[in-house]
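2024-03-11 09:14:02 INFO worker-7 job=invfold-0412 stage=load source=structure_tokens
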């Protein structure tokens, strides 16, 4: 299975052994967007969603998701996160909430999956809180924007 590190020599799944790696500072930033009708975005902005502060709850949901990544993604190592920041921007042109999350740790493996999980859970939380007013919202463009630290070095999306 050559370059696929999550498979053993017999082709079975395995969790990569990172015990020989040095603990170093690592960061990753990911993004996602949730597209909605203008009326839904205005309700979020004005605090008119009956379930409460949509972006405040989504921020907590995204942080909780980052912290639970290894429980959700089968081959992820538990990571001692040193920080997770989540920001939201209202994209007026495309009528969307853009979510950005940065995860940080000092450890033996990266935090890309934690950042990606954070934006995914934040988007799902927004959907959950707004589904009573709109069921056809679309979550899209979940991707890694930047990572630093580790053997593969720095990555920045174009």
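2024-03-11 09:14:09 INFO worker-7 stage=emit residues=158
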């Amino acid at each position: 299975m050559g370059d696929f590190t999550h498979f053993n020599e017999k082709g079975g799944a395995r969790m990569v052994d990172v015990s020989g790696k040095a603990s170093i500072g690592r960061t990753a930033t990911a993004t996602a967007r949730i597209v909605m009708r203008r009326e839904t975005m205005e309700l979020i902005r004005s605090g008119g969603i009956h379930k409460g502060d949509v972006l405040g709850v989504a921020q907590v949901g995204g942080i909780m998701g980052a912290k639970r990544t290894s429980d959700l993604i089968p081959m992820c190592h538990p990571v001692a996160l040193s920080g997770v920041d989540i920001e939201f921007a209202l994209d007026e042109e495309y009528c969307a909430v853009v979510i950005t999350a940065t995860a940080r740790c000092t450890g033996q493996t990266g935090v890309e999956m934690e950042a990606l999980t954070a934006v995914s859970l934040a988007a799902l939380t927004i959907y959950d809180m707004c589904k009573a007013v709109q069921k056809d919202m679309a979550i899209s463009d979940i991707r890694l924007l930047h990572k630093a630290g580790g053997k593969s070095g720095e990555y920045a999306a174009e």
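2024-03-11 09:14:09 INFO worker-7 stage=report msg="The helical segments are 38-46, 54-67, 69-72, 112-130."
2024-03-11 09:14:10 INFO worker-7 job finished
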